[in-house]
Design goal:
It is found in: Cell membrane; Membrane. The protein is about 35% helix and about 20% strand. It is an alpha/beta fold. A hairpin with a 4-residue loop joins strand 4 and strand 5. The longest helix is centred in the N-terminal third of the chain and has 43 residues, at about 10-50.
Amino acid sequence: MYRFLLSRQWVILTLVAVLLIPTMIRLGFWQMHRYEERTARNDLVARALDAAPVPAESLTAPGKKITTRERYRTVTAQGHFDTEREVVVRRRTDSDDNIGYHVLTPFVLNDGRILLVNRGWIPADGPSQTTFPEVPAPPGGEITVTGRLMPDETTEASGIKDLEGLPDRQIMLINSAQQAERLKAPVLGGYIVLMEPEPKNGTPERIGRPGNEDAALNYAYAIQWWLFAAAVPVGWWFLVRREKRDRETAEDAAEPQPEHAAV
């Protein structure tokens, strides 16, 4: 009755179905894992952003690596900007994906150590980007800055190549160890994204708050893959039943009809 299942066509179809089921189940678990990761990340970011500001020196120090729990924490520091040793970070985009620079300005603390401050985005002057752009000046004198603490950028984490031979005062990555070597001074680990004081005339353009990752989408994808996995055996059985019915219909049509005697 089901001898056709031993045919080459049906053996291949059955093997494909057998392989699809565990593959789709694994994909569902992978999406669920991504959902849990993104949910945990969103919770961590929310807690960091909602936490009360603390002095930057309480969370970082020269050579210190910023941890996941310290990332996005709001910190404050007192000192003054050193615009003479300011650099710009190449190939950075604004909220509309326009390419320009991030402005990285050393902030000299009262004890002489340096905190790197990403003051925001400015547009590129021209296509060559070989000269140092015109950068709006920050507030002068002794001030207090507030910003979100960020870990050092690396090629491994960001995918950005740390190119050599760049124009003067231009860099690819914000890295406290590299800047400590350039500045010949102790630099606190990581850097901050400036929140206050507000830039004059809105430039440099402030970097927005980190958004929530769409964890619900991964949850939906996980359910979708598991439904697909459940549908495979159902679909396979439906095809088997249809094939059996079609073969029976063909066999009935092929049987010779009895001759009727003439009256």
